[in-house]
Amino acid sequence: MRDVPYVDGVSLHAVLLRPRSTGWVRLRSADPFDLPLINPNYLGHPDDARHLLQGLRMARDILAARPLSDVIVEEILPGRAADSDEALARHMRRTVKTDFHPVGTCRMGRSDDPAAVTGPDLKVRGIDGLRVIDASVMPKLVSANTNAPTMAIADRAGALMRGTA
User: Fold this and answer.
1) Enzyme catalytic residues
2) Is the dihedral of CA 114, 117, 121, 127 positive or negative?
């Protein structure tokens, strides 16, 4: 991928607020110093690629509209030559990333949910004395920054541990 030069410019990104793709995090071994195995599975669901492609085309439409188009000199990435769905999909697959709000690796759920790691009390199933108190217990990604919901989880956890919930 071409390096972006240090010039004045604007970035406009398409973001999936509710991606359907799910990845996984697994222990590599029983050694706590071994790095985990992580597969984010970006664009693993066909709807995600389709929606992101629509978002990329919409971002281009916004940049092509006046008055913004009056000050845009060129599109650096993916570049105007990348106009087909296939070319844009190649660009998306090369540059796809999180917006630093992954959730759900220790999802909370009911006792009959086989994918749930914690219960509503945030206790890890099968391990006494361990709770998870962060965004990883969120079963689904919220359509916003995860900071406030994470603070609400922490507040609830404090109440649970004090016995005041």
Assistant:
1) 101
2) positive
Q: What is the pLDDT of residues 72-86, one digit of tens each?
A: 989 999 999 999 999
Instruction: Look up the pTM and report it.
Output: 0.75
d(CA 21, CA 41): 6
* Chain length of the chain: 165
Output the six-digit token pair for 36: 């985990």
User: For 118, which DSSP code?
Assistant: B
Confidence check: pLDDT of 89 > 90: yes
Q: Would you say 63 and 75 are in contact if contact means Cβ atoms under 8 Å apart?
A: yes
**End-to-end CA, the chain:** 52
Which residues contact residue 103 at a Cβ distance below 8 angstroms, ignoring those fewer than 6 apart? 135, 136, 138, 140, 141, 142, 146
Residue from 53, 42, 37 nearest 19 by CA: 42
The angle subtended at Cα 15 by Cα 12 and Cα 21, nearest 5°, is 155
CA–CA dist 42, 20 (Å, integer): 9
| Neighbour tally for 16: CB within 10 Å | 21
The pair of structure tokens assigned to 66 is 């006046």
Residue 159 near residue 122 (C-beta atoms within 8 A): no
Residue 99, beta-bridge partner list:
none
CA distance 50 to 44: 11
